[in-house]
Amino acid sequence: MKTRIIIVLVILLTALPIAAQYAPEPKRDRLDSAPKAFRTFFAKFRNAVEKNSKTQVTAMTRFPFAYGYDAGDEGKYTRTQFLKHFKDVTGDFFGEYKMDKNPWFEGGDDQTYTISTESASHLTFIKSGNTFKFISYIVEP
User: Fold this and answer.
1) Apex CA 141: angle with CA 81 and CA 90, to 5°?
2) CB 122 within 8 A of CB 78
3) Omega within 30 of 0 (cis) for the link into 103
4) pLDDT value at 3 more than 70
5) Looking at the predicted structure, is the pLDDT value of residue 71 above 90?
6) How far apart are CA 66 and CA 137, in angstroms?
7) If residue 43 lies in a helix (H) or strand (E), which one and from where to where?
8) Kind and range of the H or E run holding 139
9) How confident is the model at residue 93 (pLDDT cuts 50, 70, 90)?
């Protein structure tokens, strides 16, 4: 009986990488294809960041806020920590981001919306009532 279970487990574990290889890629479009409500929110968010308005950006953020700058440098910020590291979150990303007015956009079934750049930086937002909240900033290695 144990031998059968082990054989079945081995077969399943070998099939997983093959199945993952054929899994569909998430739909990735440009921001102009996002729902109008999100585009409106994001325009306000971008404007607040460009004006360096910590108050406005913080009001548009949900805490704890997830970040990941590099392998080993990831975690969550409280509101106070977010304010202390505001430039870490908004500085480089939005410097690059201003150059692209229609960035890559992915909308998830779970009401999340992710904005990405060519350099693999990602801002994720989530629908929260009638608005959206900034929930994470992740830079891929």
Assistant:
1) 35
2) no
3) no
4) no
5) no
6) 7
7) helix 36-50
8) strand 131-139
9) low
Structure tokens belonging to residue 93: 């990303």
Question: Residue 88: how many CA atoms within 13 Å on its side-chain side?
Answer: 18
Question: Domains in the chain and their CATH numbers?
Answer: 28-139 (3.10.450.50)
CA gap 126, 1 in Å, rounded: 47
Q: Which of 5-9, 14-18, 42-46, 71-75 reaches the highest mean pLDDT? A: 42-46
**Mean pLDDT of the region 79-103:** 76
Contacts 24+ apart (CB under 8 A), 126-134: 126/62, 128/62, 131/41, 131/60, 132/37, 132/38, 132/41, 132/42, 132/45, 132/60, 133/60, 133/61, 133/62, 134/45, 134/57, 134/60, 134/61, 134/62, 134/65
pLDDT at residue 1, rounded to an integer: 57
Contact 98, 50 (CB under 8 A): yes
How far is Cα of residue 94 from the mean position of the Cα atoms in its chain? 14
Closest to 104 in 3D by CA, of 23, 34, 25? 34
The string of pLDDT tens digits covering residues 30-53 is 889 899 999 999 999 988 988 889
